[in-house]
Design brief:
Belongs to the short-chain dehydrogenases/reductases (SDR) family. With 260 residues, the protein is α/β, with parallel strands linked by helices. It has a single domain, classed as 3-Layer(aba) Sandwich (Rossmann fold). It is 47% helix and 15% strand. Helix 3 packs parallel to helix 4.
């Protein structure tokens, strides 16, 4: 089933992790892709890897810093220039930042994490929603986190930014539903991506794999999620099949956010 035949899908953070897994899934279903990432070299590798599996895929790559509003305006402009529309937007780029208790959490680090995770999501929504409102259709999926719906220790910047993403999602969903645009967020738990691996290395150093085994004990399913499991959900939420899901936040965490 090609749910994205003749559809244009814009994805930030598309070079790795959740962004790449989602890009691959929608490409398999016929999407024309616009992939955005700060790492241009990784972006070209992602493009080539997708083409190896989906040789007829149309893929535009744009190197951009999502914390820079002018760069965000540009990636939207380039996408529309190439494809004339944006049907779906996976607003995904983000970082975790350094870990520390709030009293010792660096102010510069806090501002950096918020600039990428929250401001970047806001800028993306601000400029993509203008396009979708004019089209009178569209679907946006923002990447929040379990850390956006509950507290997580030693991650003040990350948790604050992801709570902000949840608020933006709900607010904008209420505003833009009347224009045929649905806006939702996913709240992933521990998914084995380069970002989560980096987090585990902060926690456990050279013994980070053991730290990971300890970490997943908080999950009722006792395992990490796989990026492709996020990709399947994102593809559904970006598709027309999920058009009536709006202003919602969907956990995909093996039950972690509901465990006391």
């Amino acid at each position: 089933m090609k749910r994205f035949e003749d559809k244009v899908v814009l994805i930030t953070g598309g070079a790795s992790g959740l962004g790449y897994a989602s890009a691959l899934q929608v490409a398999k279903e016929g999407a024309k892709l616009s992939l955005v990432d700060l790492n241009g070299e990784a972006l070209e590798k992602a493009k080539n890897d997708i083409l190896a599996e989906v040789p007829d895929a149309e893929i535009l790559t744009i190197t951009a810093d999502v914390a820079d509003e002018e760069a965000v305006k540009n990636y939207v402009k380039e996408t529309v220039s190439a494809y004339k529309k944006i049907d779906s937007f996976f607003n995904n780029a983000g970082i975790e930042g350094k870990q520390n208790e709030t009293e010792n959490y660096g102010s510069d680090e806090f501002e950096k994490v918020v600039a990428i995770n929250l401001n970047g999501v806001f800028y993306g929504m601000k400029h993509v929603l203008k396009v979708m409102k004019e089209q009178e259709h569209g679907s946006v999926v923002n990447t929040a986190s379990v850390g956006g719906i509950r507290g997580v220790g030693n991650q003040s910047g990350y948790s604050a930014s992801k709570h902000g993403v949840v608020g933006l999602t709900r607010n904008s969903g209420v505003e833009y539903g009347q224009y045929g645009v649905s806006i939702k967020a996913i709240a992933p738990g521990a998914i084995m991506t380069p970002m989560v691996e980096g987090s585990l290395k902060q926690m456990g150093g050279d013994d980070w794999e053991a730290a990971g085994e300890e970490f997943v004990k908080a999950n009722p399913m006792k395992r990490f999620g796989k990026p492709e499991e996020i990709g399947y959900l994102v593809a559904f939420l970006l598709s027309d099949q999920a058009g009536f899901i709006n202003a919602a936040v969907i956990p995909i965490d093996g039950g972690q956010s509901y465990k006391y």
